[in-house]
Specification:
The chain has 121 residues and is mainly α. It has one domain. The protein is 88% helix and 0% strand. The protein is built from five helices and no strands. It starts with a helix and ends with a helix.
Length: 121
């Protein structure tokens, strides 16, 4: 199972690098998730990732790091559900209006998260 976590980490690193290089891709993703009920797809993805991380944590090198990321994915999914499409859409609109520099910083944060996941899986 730790290989699944490493693959997820590599996917996070790859997407984050794409966001750092081309912030327009991140803006396009925000536009996609703002429409209708699509934001719940993001919540469902976070719930699936949380379950995978919880199940895999015991088989990974550092249980608590992987478990903590599982908790963060779970909390993120719950926040999306409880805030709803209107509020989440408002937050996404705010991020869309920000500079490319801020979006690149967010990409770098995602890159760091992915690297930590790969290292501790």
């Amino acid at each position: 199972m730790d290989m699944v976590i490493k693959i997820i980490g590599v996917a996070i690193v790859s997407l984050s690098l794409l966001y750092v290089i081309k912030p327009v891709v991140l803006r396009a993703l925000m536009v996609f998730f703002k429409k209708g009920w699509r934001v719940y797809f993001a919540a469902a993805l976070r719930f699936v990732l949380a379950v995978v991380f919880f199940v895999s944590a015991g088989k990974c090198e550092n249980f608590w790091v992987i478990f903590a990321f599982g908790m963060l994915f779970l909390i993120g999914g719950l926040l999306i559900v409880f805030l709803g499409p209107r509020r989440v859409g408002g937050m996404l609109s705010w991020y869309q209006r920000q500079s490319d520099v801020l979006l690149r910083v967010l990409g770098l944060l995602g890159l760091a998260v992915g690297v930590v996941i790969i290292i501790y899986a």
